[in-house]
Amino acid sequence: MRKREEERVLNDRSEHAFLRLAITGMTCANCSGRIERVLGRKAGIYRANVNLASKRGLFEYDPTQITPEAIIAHIEKTGFGAILDDKAHQAVLQSAEAKATEKMRWELIISAILSAPMLLGMIAMMLGSEASWVHFVHLPWVQLLLTTPIQLGIGARFYRAGWASLRAKAPSMDLLVAMGTTSAYLYSFYNGFLGGDPTHLYFESSAVIITLILLGKYFEERAKNRTGEAIRSLMSLQAQTALRIDPSQTGQYYIEVPIDAVVEGDLLLVHPGKSIPVDGVVISGHSTVDESMLTGESLPVDKGEEDLLYSGTLNQSGALVMKALKREEESTLSKIIALVNEAQGSKAPIQQLADQISAIFVPAVILIALVTLLISRIVLGEWGDAIMHSVAVLVIACPCALGLATPTAIMVGTGVGARQGILIKNGEALERVAKCRTIVLDKTGTITAGTPEVKHFALNPDVFDPNLGASTDAGEKILKILVALESHSEHPLAKAIVSYGDQEVTRQQEAGQSAAGSNSDSLPIVENFQALVGAGLTGIIEGDTYFVGSPRLMAARNIDLTPLAPLIEQHESQGETVVLMSREDQLMALVAIADPVKESSAGAIAHLKARGIKVLMLTGDNQRTAEKIACEVGLNCDEIRAELKPEDKAAIISELQQSGERVAMVGDGMNDAPALALADIGIAMGTGTDIAMESSDVTIMNGDLSSLPKMITLSEGTMRKIRQNLFWAFIYNVIGIPFAALGFLSPILAGGAMAFSSVSVLLNSLSLNRLNLDRFRAHTPKKLKD
């Protein structure tokens, strides 16, 4: 069982594996930094990345040198808890987090009740009150009784964490709080009970500081939980059970089974109002399905036979019988959750400066506090005020705000993106998006709908009777050979040809012209199939070698195109894509395919240009078709590059980068993968191939270009929040520490300011949820319509 659990969170690649852990007990940036430094020094660990905001860690390690159990043990020795961050432990994690928050709430309540009398008494005395209760709460033994449970009981968390940080040689904020409040507590104890001045008691400072810090921590924890709402909302969409149909029973007999028991090929019944349990295809029934969680689009999608269904989407109006295509852990929703989890646990490059400062922050503050103590004692001539100035320095310093500035904004930003169907892989990609000023678009499936249709099928008149078509024996044979070859390809044009072949067989059967079964049943066997990336494909059928591809491929093979040249020119001038088939060196057939432009493409390109972003279109299609499509979407002739191979696209990306441009590449096909991987930002359409999405930094699930302005706005907004957070965190410490050292802030005010600093950073990050991205709805500019 343990091995199966580890397999769900480990992704072995030769001698590299990845371990994802949920980490408990972290309170500030120094905590996450401490784990990274300690684990980073261990043999067999290549990389340790710990995120304070998400309370998660990702560890890259060599499984031949160190085990997951050993990594967890090292974390526990550092003073923190760790548990596998996988589905099996989600309930345990959520329960532990809820208990920790509830415990903190009760500690805060008790601390507030005990410290309130001392705080009110101090305020009343400052206002000149002579009431008996005021004098009572100022008695040393009363203040000792009220403060001790707070200092040594509730405040014990700071001692434990502070001591652990010292042992790890990475002092934390908890150490500062422990030192500051202990100084006030012990000095007050000395004055009250060991012969000092009983009028100089600072018990209330110790108690109120701990209370205020707990208050800040409680609100901080609540705000942190809100930053993870995107993941929780996605996880809530996962069905826990499914209705599995038993085909061996008469009628539609079904049983309810756990979602983990569903395997590929199972028939499932989905009632209206229920979530689709796994990815699959409709076998029977008709309904509308809400796919907004996947694409960000609010309008439901009609679903009928052979339509794809995605896990987590909501069946609305009718019952559906579906066939499972994937297990639950391999489903689209599971991949989205894993992707968002990874993004929210990642770091942006801009965080490096904050991490470097946090590493030396606490020792520097302790040194400043000691200097403040000595100088104040010399200048003021007595220890009481000097100690209070030093305590104020210790408690006002806050590395937490620095540590939370970047990860909280990334968590919220990637969550907002996920709700819009924009999946950003990591914080580095989120940062780079805002810097890209050139966007390169593939044509097929990116600017166009990616749902091409065959408009014309013709045979070579020099080989066949020019009046023959697909309905004749010769035409049917050629079409089946063509479909057999294309059925091995994932390219959208190949799918269009296969679909056309199926439709022709159906039409012929209905007309009584063909006795053959379904197209797939009678297709010839293809041997030695090979995809000629960016050009076409080839394969051997019954000993003959066939090539399928563009006119450019045929010309390169010195195949005579003259017999079909008029048709080639006619269809290309109409913006259609021409696919040719040859047997050996003989041209056999032509297929003309039209792929309509997406309604959103022109509007999205207009938005990008209005932002001053350079837009280019790259395509492997012919120049005439490229120019026709470019004209429809508002691109000029100098903004397109046609008849390109995959390596040509990658070369253009490289050329743009060498000229100093930051380039984003948008594509959806296998032939886009090299350019996607090379670009500063690779953006894959979710409607495309798996290899394109694996090569990309961003996936747009709805495949709509109107998501590009949304993505850029989200990236710019997130980076703006990060810069604001870092600015205020730096300014807060730069101003606050000198003010405290000079005696302008009491320890109580310093503690309150420290608590507020972290909460303010979190609230500023959460304001990203108010970004108005819906203003980028698809539209076609009036000029283009005219």
TrEMBL record:
UniProtKB keywords: ATP-binding, Cell membrane, Copper, Copper transport, Ion transport, Membrane, Metal-binding, Nucleotide-binding, Translocase, Transmembrane, Transmembrane helix, Transport
Major subcellular site: membrane
GO molecular function: ATP binding; ATP hydrolysis activity; copper ion binding; P-type divalent copper transporter activity; P-type monovalent copper transporter activity
Catalytic activity: Cu(+)(in) + ATP + H2O = Cu(+)(out) + ADP + phosphate + H(+)
Gene Ontology BP term (one): copper ion homeostasis
Family note: Belongs to the cation transport ATPase (P-type) (TC 3.A.3) family. Type IB subfamily.
Protein name per its UniProtKB record: P-type Cu(+) transporter
Species for this entry: Ignatzschineria cameli
